[in-house]
Amino acid sequence: MKILRLVNIMTIMLLVSTSCSCLAADKTEVKASKIISQVKKGKSVHLVNKIITGDLDFSDIGKHHILNANMLQCDIQSNIFFENCVFMGKVTSNGKRGNTAVQTRFMSNLIFTGCDFRGEVNFDNATVFGMVNFSRATFREVASFNNIAVWAKDSYFSEIKVEKGFTMIYASFAGNLYFLNAAFDGVASFQETATNGKLVFNNSVFRERAGFDMMQTLGNSFFNYARFEKFTDFSQSRFFGIVEFVNATFEQNANFGKTLFVNTVNFEGVDKDKLIIDN
Which residues pair with 178 in a beta bridge? Predict the structure, then answer.
């Protein structure tokens, strides 16, 4: 029996070891500089199961032109697609040329599904004409999408995991914005973000303060079964479509002061004592 038990343990260890080695073998390394060089040549990026080493700075890739006296704009025509990749360095669309700031305009898709970001992520001031998709991504450092403008029908951040701060302040989306089953361990802010389509945060969890103040949504908004563990701010937001908070959990107060609901709002299953409604 002891021999049989020992054989079983050794078999399990062998399987685990084989599984780990296969996973490591699958994720070969690619230098960020190689990706930058590829896009500079006008080629699209399609990488799956890779480890990206070094900082990936999109503002250093495309054609630059003067946007105003203090800003250059970098245009990227290539389709950008990463799946199940690990980024060891910073990923950004903001940069500098001398003393002049550079922001990036993506003419095609910007896709990072199932990716693991070990460094900071910064897409502030970016413009995207294609689809934006960060579904199932893990952000281990601060992630920033402030003032991003997306013109696609759908933008996806569903099932993301955020270990530190996440900001999407003063962003604008021409279509729908999805944050289904997202988990925020750090502070999350969506202050003054505007969507022309639906806004969906169903089943998402916010473990620190969450800010949705001064938002504007023209389509329907859904926060069903979402969980807010700290103070949450919806003050001065404007919701023009149907709004649902069905069975949402507010462990601390939620501020809805001067919030405008043009259509119906549903708080079924919500502890009303936690809602601050002062118009």
Answer: 156, 200
Between the alpha carbon of residue 79 and those of residues 36, 37, 64, 244, the distances in Å are 13, 14, 18, 35
Least confident span in 12-16, 173-177, 239-243, 258-262: 12-16
Q: Which two tokens stand for residue 60?
A: 């250093």
- Name which of 167, 174, 225, 232 is nearest 201 in CA terms: 225
Residue 20, pLDDT > 60, answer no
Q: Are 234 and 258 in contact (CB under 8 A)?
A: no
Sheet with 143-144: strands ordered across: 56-57, 91-92, 121-122, 143-144, 166-167, 188-189, 210-211, 232-233, 254-255, 275-276
Q: Kindly report whether the global pTM for this prediction surpasses the value 0.85.
A: yes
Report the number of distinct structural domains present in the chain: 1
Buried b (16+ CB within 10 A) or exposed e, 245-263: beebebeeebbbeebeeee
Q: Name the residue range of residue 110's domain.
A: 49-276
Residue 205 inside a domain? The answer is yes
Evaluate whether residue 24 is within a structural domain: no
Residue 203 lies in a domain: yes
Tokens of 220: 């329907």
Over range 160-166, report the average pLDDT.
97
Domain assignment present for residue 154? The answer is yes
- The average pLDDT across 219-242 equals 98
